[in-house]
Every structure is written in structure tokens, then in C-alpha cells.
């Protein structure tokens, strides 16, 4: 009797594990092309709890264009953390390809929306008005610090009330386990995976858990999960400051037709604008709707820290590539306006990147994940003072106000300690049975320093690093030489020679 039950339950779980691909619902993916397929995968809420309830992971797929040359499935994660893959693959299917035919002909492209990222996966839910509580990213006194902790606690209490314990289970270790569940359910051989930006932490975590289960793993803009919060802060401050100087010389250069500050001392203008905003937040006269929970809404003024933070966001891509990015010209325009005392373009960009407009915004998972993945090391106002002092030392213009800093600030007062904090990320793959990994970094990345890719390379037994001599965060999206190198690796399964430096 017992063994019959066992056999039956094995068959049932195998049957439920097979992925049922079908059309995509318009409610989840508006305007989905018929080429886009959708499915769901059921995984435990808590992988360590055998009695855990299950949650849903949303999957998307675009099948290989040339079935006679098909190699397998290529799963990818665009980073964030908490960015959905479904939007990228929806674009791919509609003819705005991230992946060229070199890849899309021979691989089924498979994306998953990470746990907590709605509407496709079981979402983290918060009240957007509560989540959008204005956070002081530069607390300057014990009472400002206490106000920050109180505000954060209220936000996370609200999200926990609405989400339940999923809020505490969206860490990257759990995501890496979901990835293995997806690989097994696809039943398509060893993993091929592209992790971009924070997706590289999923990639490294997966490789540590399953060093012999992959064929290819490529990482673009590599994050190091084995450094203290202070080092994260310091390194990112340094690379952001360096990128801002690159922007300033591009902007003021006589070559630049896209910078309204051409010929001017852009560094001094940036510095003076920040100094003005430090004295008093810049007005935002063009903000049509000052309720930031409504699409297009923004705060009625912009602080110095918000301004600095937004400039980093606008450095992500140098060259315009509509509709994805307006590139550095957008920062040039927003800065020129702010320097005249009009913070509108900056405040709009800040809102687009940081403020939620729905109760299942992907920003929620994106904000929680760092609280589960990193110790901040901040438990008092003194801890903040030390860190910000260090920021002014390493980055006199941008003062350490960076994406990592924003993440750290939002995690002060988070209800539980991190469940997947910084840890040894070494992977002892040798190439003998275990495969080689490919890393890529840009030399002048405003978010993720080259240093982290180099640290990851030395922690991985067998990995090659491609260095792109250029600006901006990530390389694969650019479609240049780095993209071709990554594509060739996926197709051949063989990484290039060590020491490859490419111009684009
Ligand atoms: C999926 O969409 C195609 C084309 O839009 C349609 O012909 C087909 O009937 C749909 N299949 C299902 C199961 O709804
Ligand atoms: C829960 O998830 C596990 C692992 O993916 C799966 O094997 C099991 O079938 C799921 N249970 C249900 C009830 O869907
Ligand atoms: C997951 O389950 C384990 C085992 O029951 C438990 O120790 C752990 O606290 C749970 N994790 C979370 C985030 O609740
Ligand atoms: C912090 O406070 C000090 C004096 O209390 C002031 O001089 C300084 O400008 C303030 N800094 C910011 C960033 O507000
Ligand atoms: C969360 O729920 C508890 C219990 O229902 C309630 O007392 C509390 O006010 C709620 N907190 C928030 C921030 O919604
Ligand atoms: C400006 O253009 C010249 C000639 O193309 C080039 O050598 C130089 O590096 C460019 N300067 C900048 C700052 O881009
Ligand atoms: C920036 O402005 C501050 C005063 O607000 C000044 O002390 C500092 O030297 C300036 N830095 C640069 C690079 O202009
Ligand atoms: C501020 O800039 C915005 C454009 O971003 C513009 O619509 C608005 O008229 C400007 N306001 C003032 C007072 O200059
Ligand atoms: C800035 O906006 C906030 C609302 O977000 C408001 O409370 C504050 O008074 C404004 N400050 C200035 C200087 O306008
Ligand atoms: C800074 O503020 C002063 C005084 O309001 C103003 O004259 C100056 O133009 C502002 N400069 C910048 C770059 O914002
Ligand atoms: C890799 O090897 C080092 C040194 O032998 C060891 O400390 C580390 O735990 C190993 N890592 C893994 C993931 O096996
Ligand atoms: C790395 O992996 C490749 C491919 O499997 C293998 O040829 C090479 O010997 C390995 N290198 C090292 C240092 O293990």
C-alpha cells in the first residue's frame, strides 16, 4: 500500500513538474506576440521547510528559430535585482531583439520572473503610497536617523501584512534553487545561463550549488557577493565618481553635439547644483502630478541625495537606444535644467526609477532582495556617519550616494536579519568535467566596478574575463564585440583565451 502510494506520488510529482507551455494571457503580458509562450512553475515558498506551501514562478519562452540547429535552452536573468525577464522576451518576440539570430536560432530563450515579481510570479505586495514614503538618504543627525528607521519599519510592516512570509523568502539563494528546479523541469540537459548585473549573483550561487550541472554560464557586469557592505559602498562610490568624470569630459568636449553644457566646466556645474540642493531642495515646477503613486507623478522638490542618485541612474547607457534609453544626452539635459534651478527632469527620472505606481511593483522585490542578501553593518547614526565620511573621501562629488547606498539605507530596520548574507563565492570548477565560465565587464561601469569582476574571476576555478574598453553598465545589451564573444561562447561551449580586451 505504502509503496503504491509512493509510486503514485512520484508519478504525480513528475507529471506536475513538466512545463505546460501555452499562449500568454493579455492580463500578464499585454500585446504578447504569438511567438511568445508562457507557463508557470510551482516551487516551495521556503526551500528549507519540507512543509512549505508552494508559490508560482512565471516563465516565458521564444523557441529556437532553426530547429535543425537547436542546441538547447538558454535561460537568462536581466538583474535588478527583481527585474522580470518576461518584458525582455516579450520585446524579443515582437521584434525588438535583445538576442541576435546567432543565439535565437539555436536556443530556446527562456526567462523567469524571479519569485516575488508580479504579476506573473507570486508577488510581493505593498501599498505604493506607504512604499513611496520619502526616505532621507543622507541622515545628518540622530533624530534624522531615528526618523529613517521608523519610516522603514512602517514600510516593511505594511509589505509583510500584505505579502505574508514570501517577503522574507525572495533571497538570491532561493532564486538559484528555483533556477535548478526550472532546469530540471525543462528536461533539456545541463544549464545554459546568462546573468546580467545582479543576475550574476544568481549565476555564481547556482555554480556553487551545482558545479557540474551547467554547460555554459556567462555573466555580464559582475557583482561580488563576498565583500562587506562598507567595501560595496566604497567600490561603487569610486566607480560612479570615475564615470561621472567620463561623462563630464564627454559633455564639455567640443565633439559633443548632444550636451547643452558643451564647452562648460561640467564638474563645477554638477558640484554647484548639488551644493544648491543641499542648502534647499531644488523646486520641481514641471511635475504635473505630485502624487508619486500615480504614473508620471513625482515629488515637488528634489534633494541633493536624490539628485546624485538620479545622475547615476542616467549614466547607465552612454549611447541613446530608444525606447530602452536616451543615454547620456538625457543626463546632460536634466543636469543643465537643474543647474538653472529646475529639478523637473531629474525628479521625473528619480520617480521612474524609485517610486511604485502599483501594489505589485517589481520595485518591491528589488528593494527587499538586498535586505535578505546583505548585512548593511548599520545599526546606529554613528555607523552612517562613518560610512558617509568615507563616501566624501573616495568620491568628493557624489559622496558615496549610489545604488548600493540607497539599498543599504532602505534596509536599516528591516524586520529580520539577512538569510543569504555575503559569503565565500568560490567555485572550484577545473574544466575537468566541470565547465568553464565567461565573465564580462566594462572598464567604466557607473554601478558595478571592474574590480568585482576581477575578484569573481579569481574566486572561480576556471573563468575567463572579457574587458570592454568603454562606458556604461553592462555590455551584452550593446550588441558590440562583447556581445559576439558571449554569443560564440554559448554556441561553441568554449570560452575565449584569457586576457581578451575588446573596444565595444
Ligand atoms: C494561441 O494563440 C493562437 C494564435 O493567436 C491561436 O490560434 C490558438 O488557438 C491559441 N491557443 C490556445 C490554447 O488558446
Ligand atoms: C511544489 O513544488 C515542488 C518543487 O518544484 C513540486 O515538486 C511540487 O509538485 C509542488 N507542489 C504542488 C502542490 O504543486
Ligand atoms: C525556512 O524554513 C526553515 C526550516 O523550517 C526555517 O529555519 C527558516 O527560518 C525559514 N525561513 C524563513 C525566511 O522563514
Ligand atoms: C549636516 O549638518 C551640518 C550641521 O549640523 C551642516 O553643516 C551640513 O551641511 C549638513 N549636511 C547635509 C548634507 O545636510
Ligand atoms: C499590520 O497588521 C496589523 C495586524 O492586523 C496591524 O495592527 C497593523 O497596523 C498593520 N500595519 C501596517 C503598517 O499596515
Ligand atoms: C574628439 O574627437 C577626436 C577626433 O575624432 C578624438 O580623437 C577625441 O578623442 C575626441 N574627444 C573626446 C573627449 O571624445
Ligand atoms: C565642490 O563644492 C564644494 C563646496 O560646496 C567645494 O568645497 C569643493 O571644492 C567643490 N569641488 C569641486 C571639484 O569643484
Ligand atoms: C522646468 O522644466 C520643465 C521641463 O522639464 C518645463 O516643463 C517647465 O516649464 C520648467 N519650469 C520652469 C519654471 O522653468
Ligand atoms: C519638499 O517637498 C516636501 C514634500 O515631499 C515638503 O514637505 C517640503 O516642504 C518641500 N521642501 C521645500 C524646500 O520646498
Ligand atoms: C546656485 O544657487 C545660486 C544662488 O541661488 C545661483 O545664483 C546659481 O546659479 C546656482 N547654481 C547652480 C549651478 O545651480
Ligand atoms: C573551494 O576550495 C576552497 C579551498 O580548497 C574551499 O575553501 C572552498 O570551500 C571550496 N568551495 C566550494 C564551493 O567547494
Ligand atoms: C578550463 O576549462 C577548459 C574547458 O573545459 C579546459 O580546457 C581548461 O583546461 C580548463 N582550465 C583550467 C585552468 O582548469
UniProtKB/TrEMBL annotation:
Query: What Pfam families does the record tag this protein with?
Result: Abhydrolase_1, Abhydrolase_4
InterPro entries linked = AB_hydrolase_1, AB_hydrolase_fold, Pept_S33_TAP-like_C, Serine_prot/Carboxylest_S33
Q: Which SUPFAM superfamilies match?
A: alpha/beta-Hydrolases (SSF53474)
Specify the Peptidase S33 tripeptidyl aminopeptidase-like C-terminal domain's residue ranges.
Answer: 403-500
Q: Where is the signal peptide?
A: 1-17
Record the organism. Answer: Cyphellophora attinorum
Please report the name of this protein according to its UniProt entry. Putative hydrolase YuaR
Q: Which residues form the AB hydrolase-1 domain?
A: 74-238
Name the Gene Ontology molecular function terms of this record: hydrolase activity
Q: Which family does it belong to?
A: Belongs to the peptidase S33 family.
UniProt key word Manganese: no
Gene3D superfamilies this protein is in? alpha/beta hydrolase
State the UniProt keywords alphabetically.
Hydrolase, Signal
Matching entries from PANTHER family are given as:
2-SUCCINYL-6-HYDROXY-2,4-CYCLOHEXADIENE-1-CARBOXYLATE SYNTHASE (PTHR43248), AB HYDROLASE-1 DOMAIN-CONTAINING PROTEIN (PTHR43248:SF30)
